[in-house]
Amino acid sequence: MSEAALRDEIARLAKSLFDRGYSVGSAANISVRLDDGYLITPTNSCLGFLDPERISRLDRDGNHVGGDKPSKEVFLHRAFYETRAEAGAVVHLHSTYATALSCLADTDPEDCVPPLTPYVVMRVGRVPLVRYFRPGDARGGDLIRALDGRHAAVLLANHGPVVSGKDLTSAVYAAEELEETAKLLVILRGQPVRMLDAAQVAELKATFG
Ligand SMILES: O=C(O)[C@@H](O)C(=O)COP(=O)(O)O
Ligand SMILES: [Zn+2]
């Protein structure tokens, strides 16, 4: 896909997320990997109203080389690209239920989104919690880098999800699936819930990888 087409695609999918309530105001950011750098949404921009031509462009080293001033969360995005060769896009949201899980004291930090349904296993996998740093603090990126690319998604404590995918559509779909599963987990709190067992999770991983 050309850079111009990718810019249009970021704006189109960002608006779709915004229109369906996955982001509000100027929260959230989205990036895509290019052959020679990255595109990332500008800081303080609203996902519902992006101008494709103003989306920020970074070179391979993360220097700002075009468009508006980039998201202050560029560290989080680059940490995924640097540790997951297969990552082509990253989506960070403050979607309500995933963020709720990131705030609950009894969320398992090793497995924030336990395997309730097959699709979350197939699309997202195990999601660890990354301890709290203020937004824009590069140490958040260091903690993601320390995971060595083992996870496609993380929850930032008291903040929200960061989800990578092989391309933008995959990253957006995974972020949506994470949010819907988080919603089920919050709705079902206090109920006796049957999770998928280890053998069922292993079968999904072996089949859908
Ligand atoms: O929560 C925050 O402040 C950021 O993580 C965020 O979601 C929006 O930051 P920008 O992309 O710099 O607007
Ligand atoms: Zn944020």
TrEMBL record:
Instruction: Tell me a GO cellular component.
Output: cytosol
> Domain Class II aldolase/adducin N-terminal, which positions?
8-186
What the entry lists under InterPro entries is as follows: Aldolase_class_II_sugar_metab (IPR050197), Aldolase_II/adducin_N (IPR001303), Aldolase_II/adducin_N_sf (IPR036409), OtnC (IPR050013)
Known catalysed reaction(s)? 3-dehydro-4-O-phospho-D-erythronate + H(+) = dihydroxyacetone phosphate + CO2; 3-dehydro-4-O-phospho-L-erythronate + H(+) = dihydroxyacetone phosphate + CO2
This protein's UniProt keywords: Carbohydrate metabolism, Lyase, Metal-binding, Zinc
Q: A single GO molecular function, which one?
A: metal ion binding
Q: State whether keyword Lyase applies.
A: yes
- The EC number on file is 4.1.1.104
Any Gene Ontology biological process: pentose catabolic process
The signal peptide here is: none
Q: Which cofactor does it need?
A: Zn(2+)
A Pfam family the protein falls into: Aldolase_II
Q: Does the keyword Glycoprotein apply?
A: no
Similarity section: Belongs to the aldolase class II family. AraD/FucA subfamily.
Q: Which NCBIfam families match?
A: OxoTetrPhDc, PRK08130.1
The UniProt function text for this chain reads: Catalyzes the decarboxylation of 3-oxo-tetronate 4-phosphate to dihydroxyacetone phosphate (DHAP) and CO(2).
State the protein's name. Answer: 3-oxo-tetronate 4-phosphate decarboxylase
Source organism of the structure = Methylobacterium brachythecii
Lineage of producing organism: Bacteria, Pseudomonadati, Pseudomonadota, Alphaproteobacteria, Hyphomicrobiales
